[in-house]
Specification:
single chain, 829 residues, alpha+beta, five-stranded antiparallel sheet
């Protein structure tokens, strides 16, 4: 029973296998029929499309159709299909011509089995008429889809681009299936029986052999397809018989594309001759194998370098069957070689283009490479010989060659560069020695770079001298960039302004602005230097500590070789002391001129007063004069006396008043007047005496000195309406050359100073320069004549002394009277 069951099971299995084989065979035949029908429809639609395109081109030139050549072409095409239908369209076959009109597909021709239907239209976006929609969007091909009637069809579609039309040839899929089902069903039982029997017999006979073949094929295919190099079987005519995927990847072709070509098709023309010269002897049996490097053309056109090894396979009779080729892609190696070659060429060109002398020397002192500059320099020594391979001793004097070789060996031992600057005769040269490193090897080669630096040395020396000159310049030097930011100042600038070097770097020179220079002057300065011209002028600037100072400046642009402004440079000189001296000199000259004028007027006026006083005294002498006339004469005499006092003061200012000088001590004079001054000034003014002991005596008119001291004390009292302190000080003073520079009308020497200072309101700065002028006063009208300080000034000057004043509004005023020390006079103790 089990045997029957096993037999039945075997029969069922075999039947099932036979059924599957038969069904598969029918399906494959059906698919083959579909493919043939697809090609046939595609051939029909393409031929009709080319016909319509040709007709359109003809009509474009020759047609006289009333509606235009395009309409004429379409009309002729439709008319021709009324009498002609493409062959092989079948019962449901149809040729359709349509165009897109707005959002619809408008059919111009629908020809089925020789009949032409009236045109209709369907929406373009409809799921119907898929083949025509594809044609109208410019696509070409075949598909299985639904037509405008909703039927499933096999269709070929083609655009008619010149007429904006689509052409479709189609057949119902049901008709194709019907053909195969009618033919296949009667044969199916017979086929099943035959297949089953043949399968059983073949299985028993061929199974062992097939198993061996499968194993062998699997091993071969694995080796062939998985090889890291390209492998190919090449026919005796050069055609590719079999290729692996690596070769296809190498040249960019699909396997079926490459099998339609020969190796000659993808070989570079320049390499083909050499390849064929070896391929021929291989075919003739003259050689067994050959190898070569050659170029293939990749599918995209670029070059692929390969290493080809080819051997010939023969049949049993010795006739050539095919060649077995091993193809290795060496493009990367070739590119690397080319890169190295190009790099060497570029490096050689670069070295030869250099004006520096460059040599590559071994640690044994032998020249390995040299550039043109070095070869040209050594031309006289090598006398036309190739310097490469020569020793340093052959190229240089013995002592120089020995010195250079010692440096080379030291650099190799230290594995670090060395630098040398040396003078050779009257010229300077710079040498750099660089070790050439090779991985894992000792240094055996040294690159030497030599350059003449005579001009650089000369320029460096000149630059160094220029730098030292600027650094030690007695004038301030400032350099800014084009935006006005400071990039350099010399020490004199720091000395004058009080700013440290690091404080001004990056700052703008406006940090020195005091507000005493007009903005228009700065604008004129900037406009001048930015226009490329030089500006000269004066600044009244402020130092870091707040002190004001005067400086004259010359500022100009610094231009590069192209004439573009890259910096601005200012050379400035502090003229504060000079301006002070000039101001003192102008003041002295002014006072001298005023004194001369005043003295002349006072002298003449005094002469007139003498006459007037004499005549008035004569008129007063008679006894019979009434009281009225006597009163008038007395008033005239009093006025004349007052005029005399006035001329006395004017003459004192002009230093034309006769003096009665005597040897005296300022301390005695001060002590003698203290009580008078206390009574005169009142209790609200405190008088402080600071009399230095042992001061030298002076030569001066005692009366005029007392008058000057009283005058200064009264002025101090008037400056302290609310009371204050009057300080009278004496001490010895030496006026040196520095002081004389500021006051050119003073002689240097030993002086005794009388200082009178108060704590009053002070003198305004604008009035300070005029206080010694006759008739100038800061008091209210009627409160002073303006001659007090003028008389003091004239007295001191006539005594050979000097007077100075310092005053600050709200802080008081101090007068200093300097009298020359009296020679051959003792000191007061």
């Amino acid at each position: 029973m089990s045997e029957h069951r096993r037999l039945l099971l075997l029969i069922l299995v075999m039947a099932a296998v036979a059924f599957l084989i038969g069904a598969s065979a029918i399906y494959l035949i059906y698919q083959g029929g579909i493919d043939r029908e697809r090609l046939r429809l595609q051939d029909i639609v393409q031929s009709q499309a080319r016909l319509l395109e040709a007709l359109a081109r003809f009509d474009q030139v020759y047609s006289a159709y009333p509606a235009g050549p395009e309409a004429g072409s379409i009309a002729q095409f439709i008319e021709s299909h009324r009498t002609f239908a493409p062959r092989g369209m079948g019962r449901s076959g149809e040729l359709v011509l349509a165009r897109r009109v707005g959002d619809d597909i408008s059919f111009l021709l629908r020809q089925r089995s020789g009949e032409i239907d009236q045109p209709l239209s369907v929406p373009f976006s409809s799921s119907l008429a898929a083949p025509m929609r594809a044609a109208l969007t410019g696509q070409s091909g075949t598909m299985i889809g639904r037509d405008y009637t909703g039927a499933t069809v096999l269709a070929a579609y083609e655009p008619v681009a010149s007429l904006n039309l689509g052409l479709v040839a189609k057949i119902d899929l049901a008709e194709i299936r019907q053909r195969f089902t009618q033919a296949a069903f009667p044969l199916l039982p017979i086929g099943v029986i035959g297949v089953l029997g043949a399968a059983a017999l073949a299985y028993r006979i061929t199974e062992p052999v097939l198993k061996q073949l499968r194993d062998s094929e699997m091993r071969f295919r694995g080796t062939f397809e998985n090889a890291a190099v390209g492998i190919a079987h090449v026919g005796v005519d050069g055609s590719w018989l079999r290729v692996n995927q690596r070769l296809c990847d190498m040249v960019g072709y699909r396997r079926e594309e490459l099998l339609r070509k020969t190796f000659q098709d993808i070989t570079h023309p320049e390499d083909l001759k050499a390849d064929l010269e070896q391929f021929g002897p291989l075919m003739r049996g003259e050689i067994d194998t050959y190898s070569m490097e050659k170029r293939y053309f990749h599918k995209d056109g670029h070059i692929v370098w390969i290493n080809l090894t080819t051997a010939l396979q023969r049949d049993e009779s010795g006739q050539p069957l095919y060649c077995i080729s091993m193809i290795e892609d060496i493009s990367a190696r070739k590119r690397a070689e080319q890169t190295v070659s190009e790099s060497e060429n570029r490096m050689r060109a670069l070295l030869d283009a250099s004006e520096d002398e460059i040599l590559l020397v071994s640690t044994e002192g032998r020249v390995l490479a040299i550039n043109q500059a070095a070869e040209h320099r050594l031309a006289r020594r090598i006398a036309g010989l190739d310097p490469v391979g020569a020793t340093l001793a052959r190229l240089f004097p013995a002592d120089l060659a020995e010195n250079r070789l010692a440096i080379i060996r030291n650099v190799a031992a230290a594995r670090s560069p060395a630098h040398l600057e040396t003078a050779i005769r009257a010229r300077w040269f710079e040498f750099w020695f660089y070790p050439v490193r090779h991985a894992g090897q000792a240094i055996s080669e040294i690159a030497i770079y030599a350059r003449e630096i005579t001009n650089r040395k000369r320029a460096e020396n000149e630059l160094r001298r220029l730098y030292q000159a600027i650094q030690q310049s007695p004038s301030s030097v400032v350099i800014t960039d084009v935006e006005g930011q400071i990039v350099y100042v010399n020490p004199k600038f720091c000395e004058v302004t009080g700013y440290a070097h690091e404080e001004v770097m990056g700052q703008n020179p406006r940090i020195l602005k005091s507000g005493h220079t007009a903005p228009e002057q700065y604008k004129q300065l900037w406009d001048t230097i930015t226009a490329g011209r030089i500006w000269r002028g004066e600044f009244h600037n402020r130092k870091k500590n707040g002190d004001l100072y005067w400086e004259i400046a010359s500022i100009g642009p610094v231009k590069d070789d192209a004439g573009e402004i890259i910096n601005f440079v200012a050379v400035k000189e502090d003229v504060t002391e000079r301006r002070a001296v000039e101001e003192q000199l102008r003041q002295s000259q002014k006072m001298q001129a005023i004194g001369q004028l005043t003295g002349g007027i006072a002298h003449d006026f005094n002469n007139l007063l003498t006459i007037i006083l004499g005549n008035l005294q004569l008129l007063k002498q008679p006894d019979g004069m009434d009281d009225r006339r006597r009163t008038l004469i007395d008033d005239a005499l009093w006025a004349a006396s007052r005029g005399g006092e006035l001329t006395h003061r004017l003459l004192a200012f002009a230093r034309m008043q006769p003096l009665r000088p005597a040897i005296l001590n300022l301390n005695d004079v001060v002590r003698g007047l203290i009580d008078l001054l206390r009574r005169t000034l009142g209790s609200r003014v405190d008088i402080v005496e600071e009399l230095a002991p042992g001061i030298p005596s002076v030569l001066a008119d005692p009366g005029e000195l007392e008058r000057a001291l009283v005058n200064l004390a009264i002025n101090a009292r008037d400056a302290m309406p609310g009371g204050g302190t009057l300080t009278i000080q004496t001490r010895r003073a030496i006026l040196d050359a520095d002081y004389v520079k500021q006051c050119p009308d003073v002689a240097p020497g030993d002086y005794v100073m009388l200082r009178v200072s108060d704590t009053g309101t002070g003198i305004p700065a604008e009035s300070l320069g005029r206080i010694f002028e006759p008739f100038f006063t800061t008091k209210e009208v009627g409160e002073g004549s303006g001659l007090g300080l003028s008389m003091v000034y004239g007295f001191v000057k006539q005594s050979g002394g000097h007077i100075s004043v310092h005053s600050e509004p709200g802080a008081g005023t101090a007068f200093k009277l300097f009298f020359p020390r009296a020679m051959n006079a003792g000191r007061y103790r």
